Amino acid sequence: MTEDLPGAGELILLAGLGNPGPQYAGNRHNVGFMVLDELAARVGGKFKAHKTGGEVLEGRLAGRRVVLVKPRSYMNLSGGPVVGAAKFYKVPPSGVVVVHDELDVDFGALKLKFGGGDNGHNGLRSITKSLGTRDYYRVRFGIGRPPGRQDPADFVLKDFSTVERKELPLEVDRCADATEALIGTGLAAAQNSFHAG
């Protein structure tokens, strides 16, 4: 086991961020949900409502025990359901992995990291506040910056462009691969494999 491996041998909590409801399903802000749905397909199960305020699925990925969590709250309240599930399953912050959209990473690129700020992301801000620490893993799915003077808050609540939608299934699949690599081989090895240039 390497020291940069999430959860060192224990259960890992994988949280994907998004907004609930069909009107948000295709939004850039919901890419965390899209990746979790792909991981759920790999686990071979269905999400079930949980008393902690999210939908959960327990299983195995990359040889590790995992619980997948999709909050049923809006993005800016993600912390409650994520931390509720972490406490319920007794997962420390070092075993929490959050998959989310990232404005400062180009579409088609991924960045994995441990700790750091929220970079204006309301979901991360809520999780950090609820956890009481920034020390958890992040899988950052690049959505790029909005064109021209478009407000980032509007941009993240729009669906991916036509061109992006053609690539989206491939990128979601790749992000799921990166998440599995992170929990299976550790942060440094996953970064070496999935960070472009």
From TrEMBL:
A GO molecular function held by the record: hydrolase activity
Cross-referenced InterPro entries: Pept_tRNA_hydro, Pept_tRNA_hydro_CS, Pept_tRNA_hydro_sf
Localization in the cell: Cytoplasm
Residues of the active site: 29
Gene3D superfamilies: Peptidyl-tRNA hydrolase
Catalytic activity: an N-acyl-L-alpha-aminoacyl-tRNA + H2O = an N-acyl-L-amino acid + a tRNA + H(+)
Main location: cytoplasm
EC number: 3.1.1.29
Chain positions of site Discriminates between blocked and unblocked aminoacyl-tRNA: 19
Residues under site feature: Stabilizes the basic form of H active site to accept a proton: 101
Class in the EC hierarchy, top level: hydrolase
SUPFAM superfamilies, per the entry: Peptidyl-tRNA hydrolase-like (SSF53178)
Domain of life of the native organism: Bacteria
Residues where tRNA binds: 24, 74, 76, 122
Keywords from the named record: Cytoplasm, Hydrolase, RNA-binding, tRNA-binding
Described purpose of this protein according to its UniProt entry: Catalyzes the release of premature peptidyl moieties from peptidyl-tRNA molecules trapped in stalled 50S ribosomal subunits, and thus maintains levels of free tRNAs and 50S ribosomes.
HAMAP family per the UniProt record, alphabetical: Pept_tRNA_hydro_bact
PANTHER family: PEPTIDYL-TRNA HYDROLASE
NCBIfam families in the cross-refs: pth
Family statement drawn from the similarity comment of this UniProt entry: Belongs to the PTH family.
Quaternary assembly: Monomer.
Protein name: Peptidyl-tRNA hydrolase
Native source organism of the sequence: Amycolatopsis bullii
